[in-house]
Amino acid sequence: MKIGFKLIAEAYGPAEIVEQAVRAEEAGFDFVEVSDHFHPWVGEHEHSGFAFAMLGSIAARTSAIGLATGVTCPFVRYHPAIVAQAAATLGILSRGRFTLGVGAGERLNEHVVGAGWPPVATRHEMLREALEIIRLLWSGGYHSYEGKHLRLEDARVFDLPDELPGIAVAAGGPEAARLAGELGDALFATEPRDDLVAAYEEAGGDGPKYAEVPLAWASSVEDGAESARRSFRFALAGWKVQSELPNPANFDAATELVTAEHLRGQFGCGPDVERHLEVARPYVEAGYDHLALINAGPDPSGFFDFFTKELGPALRELS
């Protein structure tokens, strides 16, 4: 079992994100993963730093903790050739500690380049092509690619690490989980769904299985739930909504009736380690072995202390 920490780049500025990663290593986390967004989710969020720049700084400031994007859409806002180059560079700078998390993206971030937002079936086709392009470029030498949606012309990534980064593919359904098994090295999920694990393994996947676990540590349950409402109420909208709305103002409108009590039911809120374990346990039981802890609470420093003294040891016993 590996325990990671989610760096919420929409809620904290780039310098603070780097400091949190340093603190996560000191607190005993095995890895950090940072969201790769252009826009934040809701009005209370006021940040959205460039993920690859922050990860480069984190790589320079840390020595052992794993690094990952959680996750990058590699085919609209970016071309997969750029993602292949960026990930290879991070693989070198981190001395083999980087994992490229990829997914089919959200309109929130991808529409900004004016290339439109395809339907979900097309996005899955584009994700497959993007992964093929990344793998091609990581094989060394010059390559071209002519896909249904994506093209590559006579391109080469010159700086490749001795050990290529693993690719974790995000899945919200069995189709994407099968893609993770076919072309990825790991599965990435946000729900404790064993059907995703099964689809991943049936498609040949035998690597790590990442999942984000929603927590909100605070001195009281009420404070944790209210903090989660302010910063993570968008999560209750469901993926069909999350992937389609274009701006934070739209998410504010879609979630204005979400209450702290709703979040209390979904997140591990407050100071009780048993409640946090109650939220994490279904992920372990579903087969996930890399848990990325989200802390939607108001006190990151207090959460790190809580993890070191209580939560971390208890979580590792779950495995």
From TrEMBL:
Parts of the chain that traverse the membrane: none
Record bears the keyword DNA repair: no
Signal peptide location: none
Pfam name, any one: Bac_luciferase
Entry superkingdom: Bacteria
Domain Luciferase-like: 13-290
Entry-linked InterPro entries: F420-G6PD/mer (IPR050564), F420_G6P_DH-rel (IPR019945), Luciferase-like_dom (IPR011251), Luciferase-like_sf (IPR036661)
Gene Ontology molecular function terms on file: oxidoreductase activity, acting on paired donors, with incorporation or reduction of molecular oxygen
Keyword annotations: Oxidoreductase
Keyword Oxidoreductase: yes
This protein's name: G6PDH family F420-dependent oxidoreductase
Annotated organism of origin: Kribbella jejuensis
